[in-house]
Structure formats: structure tokens, C-alpha cells
Amino acid sequence: MIVEIGHFALALALGVAVVQSVVPLWGVARQDRALAGVGQAAALASFLLVCLAFAALTLSYLRSDFSVENVVANSHSTQPLIYKITSVWGNHEGSMLLWVLILTLFGALVALSRRSLPERLRAGTLAAQGMVTVAFLAFTLLTSNPFRRMLPAPAEGQDLNPLLQDLGLAIHPPLLYVGYVGFSITYAFAVAALIDGRIDAVWARAVRPWTLLAWVFLTLGIAMGSYWAYYELGWGGWWFWDPVENASLMPWLAGTALIHSTVVMEKRDALKVWTILLAILTFSLSLLGTFIVRSGVLTSVHSFATDPARGLFILIILVVFVGGSLALFAWRAPLLRQGGIFAPVSREGALVVNNVFIATSCATVFIGTLYPLALEMITGDKISVGPPFFNATFIPLLVPLLLLLPIGQSLAWKRGDLLGAAQRTMLAFAIAIAVTVIVFAIRWGGPVLAPLGVGLGVFLIAGAAFDLGERIMARASGLPAIWARAVGLPRSAWGTALAHAGVGISVIGIAATAWSTEAIGVLRPGDSLTSGRYRVTLESVTPRTGPNFRAEVARFSLASGDRVLLPVEAAKRLYIARNMPTTEAGIRTDGLSQAYVSLGEPQGDGSIAVRLYDKPLVLLIWIGALVMAFGGGLSLTDRRFRLAAPRRRAAVVPQAAAQPAE
Amino acid sequence: MTALDPTRSGPARRRMTRKQKRLAMLAAGGLVLAIAAALVLVAMRDTIVFFYGPTEIAEKGIAPGTRMRLGGLVEKGSVQKGPGQRVVFSVTDSKSTVKVSYEGLLPDLFREGQGVVTEGVFEGGSSFRADSVLAKHDETYMPREVADTLKKQGHWQPGEAPAPSAPAKR
Predict the structure, then answer these.
(1) Count of domains observed in chain B
(2) Contact call for residues A503 and A398 (beta carbons, < 8 A)
(3) Which of B41, B42, B137 is best to mutate for the A interface (most A CBs within 10 A)?
């Protein structure tokens, strides 16, 4: 019964979403406030209905209701409770439901947002969001219904893919989806602005928190996914330039560019048309990502659903929304009031440079990801574009951007002084050079790029710190005055500095991977294996039984030089329901570094193949991402996002052209 | 770039004119794009590997020493392990077979009779030295290239997916 209620709620949500996408626009056209306000009620209603559907599916999983096909295919009665819950989105149908849930959640948040939005903008935004919701609800109901019954019900389910039975998976997709789907709101705002034909600093200020929110979650989601792949797949790698990873990286890059261009728009009333385009492209890349993941057109280690009908449906959604919004853009953008032009050497000029580099690097990822598909369609040749391609294109574009970042950050708005900015960053640069030289000396004979990368990271961190320091110290003397200035500095200034420092931290972690070492050996109990600074000794191999798996657990003692570290356990698991083996890597964190042990096949004669990695400073990669996300979150609490000028609350009737707020 | 169009009043003396500013922006943007295009083209030439099935290798006359990806099914009974980490197995599409040698740990889901994708160097004849054997996330998943290769050779049974109740292939 509960399953039917869920199904019905989902269908009802589709109807409500249709209302949400049509009525507000009609209201705006007729200048009828009541009709225009329907969008808010509809957005709330569709969110509640999808919530009900999601709750119904979750309940079916909790009760192991094997009369539901989706539960049969992805759950098992012996599964631990937490994985019964995460199974809900550990499969195609359920994750689409989560996707729609987040889509409607964002619509509801916009409807509820107390921040003053011009009513025309709110109505248009909710309508555009409603259209996206209609498309994805229809997709879920027509091609991926999670509520399909299966009669007669089997006695037992087929279990969740063992690789997904992990806490990392419990958090990775929701974080990622909030990011992915969050960009739908910026898209909706852009479409609303195009329909309305007006765009100004008010728009930029309304959009920026949503962009930041989506970006923060996407950052966390990507970092979480990367860490999950690192410890769960047992290959010791953390980024594979796999199409599915690229699918999340592209919206992240475009979103990063968007955050920066909305700043220019908010402060200087410039870059308007570009910002609108970027907002459309960012969500288009999210949709493209969905298409790549769901259609199976690209071979990926992640492979999800490979059903041609679904692929075609999403392709149609992709074409309609990307094509439709770009057509709208081509038609309406020339009508938008143009922004001002500005000096190339200025903060806004530097942010344009940032946008050019990020957009270009995003384009190289796009080409590398989709070129194999295009080539196969044209010539039939199958190729693979792997890490060497991206290392040779993406990284050379990113390095100059990062080198310019601290300089651009210390340029003033309107008219900057390049020489002054260079002088201000000189100290940070000197520190970076010094660190590079020292690291070179310590690691003499090692890879050349690693010390340079570490130097770049230090440059970013020091640049961010000095920029902040300068703003605090500017006209203040004495500790109390400095403290007062530090507290009085806008949160967004702290957020910016932290986010940029976070990039630097990640860069150091990534550079340090060049020093990681790997050793493979066949070990019997008592044998040792050394890699880099770490030495493991196999103590024992013992069988162990889990709730839904059997495991062979190898216990190692671990030492680094004379230092004895805590022992580490690695395992081979066999999940019984699917008869599928997985490798559980043994990881011991040592400061910021990790020793990583992973098992190969037992050799049959009592020995076992073991792979040991020394991963110096590897944790910095994800710590940097956390710092970036924290910086973004801090910016989000900036008072200028919380307190928007209430006087801008205007009627549906066309308001006087809003002047840019400086 | 239209966003940079001027609407403001004319430029002050000694500063760049609007036109010059716009040109400077366009030149900078164009330069970055040109660099990116050059990088992409060079990388395309040097880093891309083609994917072939065993029959294609035989038919296309691939030169020994070519780096490529090879995909197909691991032939039943062909896997020989040792000494040490060395593994030798045959990859087949039922029509042709290529002998693959590999040194290293195999992914969890490497099994006889199942699909596999390897990357390495073709050594001529029908032997292939792999430096990586690609893993998959799911036991029911068949790399698409492998599926296509098998279809081409007329040996694809979609029914190989586990339980008929599972909604298509996950």
C-alpha cells in the first residue's frame, strides 16, 4: 500500500510541477500577482509530494519489501541497517528519485526564501525550475519507476553492489547531487532573467548564494567520491580522469568560473551576458554529466544503467534544455542592457583572466571526454583518452591561472596597479621560492615537478594569508585595533582567502603524489615488504565472517624506520549474495601521509600477493578540498547575502530599472 | 565578448581607448584559446590509444610495438599464474585469440569467461604485453567495447546478465 502511495505521490508531483512551470509565467504576462504567486505554493507542494515518495521507497527498503523490484535488485535482508538506507540511492531508479527530491528541494527553498527577490524574477525562476522538474519526474516515472512491483515476491534480494556498501557511498551521492542539481537554480535564474529581459546587480546578488551553495556541495561531493575511490577500489589512485569523474569536474569548473563572474557583476555591473551564459552552461554540463553516467555511452569504471531508452530520454532532456536555453539566450541576450567596460589591469580584469583560463581548461576536459564518442560515431574507431591527455592539456592551463591568482587577488577594483600588486605578492613569492629550493635540497634526485608543485601551493597559501593580513593591518595599529578589523572584515573576504588557500593545500598534496612509491611482493606470514618509508610484516591471515560477506583478513605490523606504528589490516571480501569479491585496503594515517596496503589473490600455497604504497602528504588533497568548501560556506554567511535591501521588493508591475548597488 | 561592450562615457587621456581595451581582452582570450588548442592537438597525437578486439588486430595488420587497448573475453582455462606476479592469459572474441602477458595484481573481478579490457603494447603475431588490466565496479557489467566486439563476431548473449528480474543491466 505504502508503495502505491509513493508512486501516486510522484505522479501527483508531476502534475503540480506542470502547474509550477506554466502558471507563474502566465501570471507575469497578465500582471496578475495571484497567478504569479502560484509558483511558490506549487514548488512547496511538489517538494512535499516527492518527499512522501522518497519516504515510501525508504520504508520499503527498511522493511526489505521484496515485492518491489527495486528493493529485490539492490537489497538483502542481512544487509546492515545503514546500507539498507543507502541502497535507496545506490541504484539508478532510487538515485533518480533522490535527484528529483533535491531538485524540488531547491525550488521550495527559493519559494520560501525570505530574501527579497523581485517577484517577476521569483516567478520566472520557479517556472523554469518547474520545467526541469517536469522533465526529470517524467523520466523517472516513465523509464525508471522505483515503485514497480514484482509478483510473486522472491524470498530474498540480490544485495547492493558490495563496492557501494560503504559509508563513503552513504554521503557521496547526496553531496554530489546537491551540487549538481543546485546549479539548476542558477540556470532557472538565468532563464528567468532572459525571459524578463532585465539583469542587474540585484540579479547577481540573488544568484550568488545559490551558486556558492551548489559549489560548496559539489566540492565536498567530488572530494568524498575521490577519497572513496582511493580507499575502496584498492588501486591507491584518487583520480582517474574517468568520464564519470570528468562529468562532475566540468560543472565544478564552470561553477567556479560562475562564482567569480557573478562577483564582477555584483560589484561592477559588468560581464552580464557572459555570466548568464555561464549559468546556463554550468547546469548544461550537469545535465551532460547525468547523460554520460546514465546512458552508458561512454565506457567508465562507474557504469550505472545502460538502457538505450533511458539514454535517449535524457538526450532529449539535454537537447531541449540546453538547446532551448541557448536559443533563448541568442534571442534575448542582445536586448539586455550591456554592462560597463573596464581596465584590463584591475580586479575585474583579473577575474576575466580567471574565467578565460577556467573556461578553457573546462573545454579541454570536455573535448577529452567526448572526443572518443564523436570519433566512434564518425569513423567507427574506438579510442581511449586517458590521464596522459589530461595531464598534457588541463595542467598546463591550470598552472598559469594559479600563478596569477595571488597577484589578481591583490589588485584593486576599477583601476589596479600591476607593479604594486606584484610588489605585494613578492614576499609570498619569495617564501614559495625558498620552500621550493629547500624541498629540492631535501629530496635531491627525486622528481623535479614535485618541489615546483609544492612551491606553487605555498605561493597560493602565503598569497592568501598576506592579502588577508594586509587588509587587516591596513590602517590599524595595536592588537585591539587589528582584532577589531579582523572581526569586522566581511566574511566573504575570509571565505575567499580560505578557499584560495585550500586550492594551495590541494596543490601540495597533488604535487606530493610524485613521491609516492609502490612495492608488490608475495608474502608468507613473517615476511616483510618495504616501500618508501614504510615496512609491513605479514603477521597472520585469518578468515572472518561479516553480516553478508566472508573475508580473509591479513594483519600486518607496520614500521617506519625505527618507529613502530599501529598494525594495519587489509582484507579480501566475498559478498555471498552476488558472489562478488572486493578488496578492502588497509590504510594507516601517519601525520598527513598514509601507508596503504592492498591484497592480491591468495597464491594457493599459503602466501599472498601484497601491494604496499607510501603516500606522502596524500591527505592534503582532501583537506584542501574541505578548506575550499569551508571558505565557500563562510562566504555564504556574509551579511550582504543575508540582508538584501528590502526596498527592492517590487510589485509584479515592471519596476524602475534597478541601479547597481555598489 | 559582447559583455565588454562600452556604454560608459569616453576614455580619459593616457588611458587605453575602449577599442584598445576590448582588443586587449580579445587578444588575451584568443591567446589562451590558441594555447589550449595547441595543447589539445599535440596531446591528441601523442596520448590517445585505440581499442581493438582480437579479430581486428589480425585483420587490420597492426604494427608490432603499437600501444593500444585490447578487449574481449578471458578464454576459459587459459589463465596461467606465476612465477611471481606474472600472469598469462588469452583474450578471445571466439574467432581470434591473443595471448596476453601481464605482471602485477589482477583486479577483483578478473575471471575466466568474463569480459576484460587491457592496455599495453602489441608485440606482433598474436602476443600482447599488458601493463594494466582494467577493473570494473560491477560483476554484471561488460565493457561496452567488449560487448561490441563480441556482437560483431556474433557471440553476444544479453541473457548473460544475472537474474532476469534485474532491470536491464546495472
Answers:
(1) 2
(2) no
(3) B137
